[in-house]
Amino acid sequence: MIRAAQLLEYQRSEYNVLNRSAMWLGNVALVFITPFAINNLLNGQWHVAIAALVIIAVFSFNTFTVLIWKTYYSGLCFFLLSPAMLLFIWFSIPQQGIIGVLWSFPALVAFYFLLPERLAWLVNGIGLAMIFYLSWVTFDHGLAIRIIATMTLISLFTAVSVRLINIQQKALHQVAITDFLTGLYNRNNLTLVLDEIIENNHKSTASNHLMVLDIDHFKSINDQHGHETGDQALKSVASIIRNLVGDDGVVFRLGGEEFLVLLEQQSWQEAKSLAELIRSTMANSELLPGFSTTLSIGLSRLKPNMTRADWIKESDQNMYQAKHHGRNQVVAS
């Protein structure tokens, strides 16, 4: 999948939630855990203090990487932070008694916000097993059973809550970045994607291209056949464009009857051939029983020192030239 599509997919993944979670948990760790870590260190509780300091260090590192590089290292949390937090539980309950149990509450909850879902389940299962054993050998069995039941319920409630949050976030983001009628990406994230492409353009020798496509005489479709038929025509056009572009680009609906295709890592000749293929396929397709339509297409390659506004403007101008010169054609520059 090309970089622009990867960017859009990443934005609606659970790792976007993890990014923000890691940053805020890191800030909380610095403020609240540091004094207790220092106190444990001064009182000779080395195991608890060292585990706490490792937790603080990993939280701080992830906060830094999220703020500076917008990157979250879930592998670091799994292989370093999770063992440190489990060790913290292992040593704190025997040494601190019920206070150690209280420290286990935020540890279990934090796993669900720091790790992908299945890894969070795994680490929580290990943590609960440790708490079960340590409580059983540290406290009287009546209290141990209450602790185990409470911690299990907290873990389950948190797992369900985080799963619902992730599902809702993905659904909301899907609504935010896609067009409800055609299922294509809408223009909400277009600025971000184009800026990313322009910023990284100097790192690649491959060409990047914008294709603006407009349905010819679309108003007459609505006027003669009604808006419901017009919507069906839009969905058919979107489907044809998306199928022809495939993994070679990302397709957006800009609004109305206008579409945009972003092509990365394509030669100029490949981009022009694809534009012509879309034009000819549309001209020879029956969108709905009884009628067909054509497209006017403007194609522009990303040139040195070109801004996002310049790139879109040139593609638009080429599309309007195609309209001016008779429609059903491709103008490229």
From TrEMBL:
CDD domains: GGDEF. Keywords: Membrane, Nucleotidyltransferase, Transferase, Transmembrane, Transmembrane helix. GO terms for molecular function: diguanylate cyclase activity. It catalyses: 2 GTP = 3',3'-c-di-GMP + 2 diphosphate. SUPFAM superfamilies: Nucleotide cyclase. InterPro entries: Diguanylate_Cyclase (IPR050469), GGDEF_dom (IPR000160), Nucleotide_cyclase (IPR029787), Rev_trsase/Diguanyl_cyclase (IPR043128). This is diguanylate cyclase. It comes from Marinicella sediminis.
